[in-house]
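Lab notebook page, bench 4
Experiment: in silico fold of construct C2
Operator: M.H.
Input chain length: 313 residues
Purpose: comparison with the prior construct
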Amino acid sequence: MISQVVTNEVFARLGIHPLDTKLLRGYNDNVFEAGQNEKFIVKILEKSVSSELSLLAELEWLNYLHMKGIDVVKPLYINGTDYIEEVNDDYYFVVFQKVNGVYVTPKDTEIWGGAFFEKWGELMGKIHSASKNYSAKNSRPMWNDNKILIELGALELNPQLIQKWARYNKEFENLPISKDNFGLIHGDLHCGNLIVTNSSVYAIDFGDSEYHWFAYDIAIAIYHTALTVAQPERDEFAKRFFDAFMNGYGRGNTNTDVIKDINYFIEYRHLYSFTYHSLYADKSQLTEQQLKYLKNMELSLINDSPFLTVLLG
């Protein structure tokens, strides 16, 4: 949790009174809406979590996508020339244009369905298509520089899960890489990182963007969306989501050969998700139901129970 001293300092730098701000979200309660008339978004980050060059690379990538006419949140210059401003030795902050729209969940039945899934897929397809010709000034991490992989050794994971990680890492090193199947991806484009307006769907929070296989980005969307439905209905829903999503994806990126690896990457995401929560979740703050959910995730991985039994692609 970021202290009020830090947040008040950030707001003062921006000429905003704390009463004209509102905590929005963020894994560490670090994203705020600010301003009186024209609202904007402020994100405060710990230097120990995100390096300045990596953060700058994220913002440059976002600006590139925005300039290409792709619906992503636009980063704003803070003082006319810089995207990032230091608060103190531990924090800096960035500012984004506010997208006037809403977050959508399965409870929003008027929106949650095929047409929305297609727009979601089209947006990802456009991002992947733009990635093919993007020449970065500052680079985001490669897949094998992901923070989870770096910190894996500090985790007391079940030995079978350690073996799974080793097997995936070895297999990834031998996967084919080309301009059409590999590039800079969003890395976490679930519904919580989408904002729906009257006319479009916008992508936000590119903090997990990295160089990876496009199929993995698609698998992330499928995995987290499928989680909203319990078995035995999950497989059937995942297939419907996949079909609609890929219809849209094909409009944004005409090369859809990547789908042959979708199930493989969905299972990888299941392992990644469990490991992520094992690393970052404060177990003392989790409910009994959440702890049980994590335990069931672990058992499914140990027992090699597939997250989906339906073959996609």
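Observations: The radius of gyration is 20 Å. The chain is about 40% helix and 15% strand.
Next step: discuss at group meeting.
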